[in-house]
Design brief:
- By secondary structure, the chain is mainly alpha-helical.
- The protein has one domain.
- Helix content is about 65%, strand content about 0%.
- The longest helix is centred in the first third of the chain and has 19 residues.
- It is elongated and about 50 Å long.
- Keywords: Membrane, Transmembrane, Transmembrane helix.
């Protein structure tokens, strides 16, 4: 496993923890962003914003 996939798994777990423990506060947007980024990074294993077309 590379570092980005491990970071993605950590972000996914952190987002789930925030959803469960801070249920009565308004942290759902932050938890959703963390879960989404963690899921994408754990599946793809890379961070790439642009694709260079050559």
């Amino acid at each position: 496993m590379n570092k980005v996939r491990i970071l993605g798994i950590i972000l996914l777990i952190l987002g789930i923890i925030i959803l469960n423990y801070f249920e009565h506060k308004n942290y759902h947007l932050l938890a959703g962003i963390l879960c989404g980024a963690g899921l994408i990074w754990s599946i793809t294993g890379k961070i790439q914003f642009k694709r260079n077309a050559k």
